[in-house]
Amino acid sequence: GQTVESHEKLNPSISTKVEPLDEHEAIEGGTVVTDHVRFEGLVPGKEYILNAELVNQADGSVIGKSKEPVKFTPKSSEGDLKDVNDGHGVDIVVNGDVEAGSVDKAVAYEYLTSTEVDKSGKDSESGDENKIAEHTDITDDAQTVKSHEKLTPEIETTVDQLDEHEAIEGGKVI
């Protein structure tokens, strides 16, 4: 007899929700944007790699990327990244040359790859990074972070002028 195994066709996908910046935090060099990723259609027990970029919504230029690729091994075919990544999302760091005020809104792009399986979930022996899923919608509000005006503390002082016949001696006007 011949045995044919049937596998349900996997349709891997990722969706993201980016954490808003604090009310006085601007998108600028060094700012960390945290993206929370949900995945579906993955093969449990296989390692996946998630990379992220931050894209300026105005012109599509890449203005940041994930600190490091997030490697994770899901226990089930769908879930939240934080559940398989010690409670963390993906931290994306804004490039050092981005100045506060130069970017109004930025969008998190996520790219999921694996060297262990291909997109259909079959084992991959080549060692190549296989594209599994990506989330790159520049109009998606859930993955868009808005820059805020930086709070620049200012102190104003006024000094009264002394009259022409006044002087300061020992801290007192005489």
Report on this model:
The protein is mostly beta strands and 174 residues long. The strands form two sheets. Strands 1, 2, 3, 4, 5, 6, 7, 8, 9 and 10 form a ten-stranded antiparallel β-sheet that branches. Strands 11-12 form a two-stranded antiparallel sheet. Strand 3 and strand 4 form a beta hairpin. The model has no long low-confidence stretch (mean pLDDT 90).
Give start-end ranges of low-pLDDT stretches.
Answer: none
Return the average pLDDT rounded to an integer. 90
Anisotropy-based shape: rod-shaped
Number of DSSP-assigned strands: 12
Helix percentage range: under 10%
- Calculate the terminal CA-CA distance, rounded to whole Å: 114 Å
Number of helices: 1
Order of helices and strands: EEEEEEHEEEEEE
Q: In percent, how much strand structure appears in the residues?
A: 35-45%
Structural class, judged by helices and strands?
mainly beta
Q: Sheet bearing the most strands, described?
A: 10 strands, antiparallel
- Radius of gyration from the alpha-carbon trace, in angstroms: 26 Å
